[in-house]
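Hey, quick one: can you model this chain's 3D structure?
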Amino acid sequence: MEISVQARHHETVRPEIGRLHASARAEASDQHEVLRKATEAVNTLQAEFARVQTAGGVTDIVVRPIATGSWRPVVKGRQQPALYRASAGLRADFTDFDALAEVAARFGGTEGIELNYVEWRLTEATRLELETLCLTKAVERARDRATVMAHAAGAGSVSFVQLADPGLLGEAPSARQSFESAVRGAPMAMMARGAAKMGDEQPLAGIDLQPEDLTVEVVVEARLSA
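Sure thing. Here's the predicted structure for all 226 residues.
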């Protein structure tokens, strides 16, 4: 007898990183002026990120190149002189959430600087550790579930025939082939769920930043023989 099951396991933890996405913008009728303003805004915010990084509250900083553009507005059917814009994106990974709140309070209303949103994340080491734990527990649950079904049907012990991501179970491969495929394909199905998923965007509406828990979940499908 063959038994097919799906099992899952999740772990919920507090985020370790608050990735702040920000931008520096400027508009003016003079091309050199707009570049000067945008550069000044970028340097101001980058310097603040570097200060917090020196204090140990930021682990990574990304500053993207300044992009420029121009357009000619039309007023009452008449084309006006050209206007210019310049903008650049910045990103900083905060491990000190109090420092993140301070930066939000300090620069939230600064002309030329926009604090767009915070992305709550885990470190790579923690993410991999949780994936491994969830995968192990999900496989154990698959075995336990199949064992209960086998006993209810009057059968004995169970052994794995297939183990795969959801929707990837094929037709009757050998146990060795399916096991190797599962190893190469690890960590199978991993996703984040809950009020704040990994990568969710939370607008900076104020300075009272309260990170929501992140949930890492692994789902596996298995076919066992009894």
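One thing worth noting: The mean pLDDT is 82.
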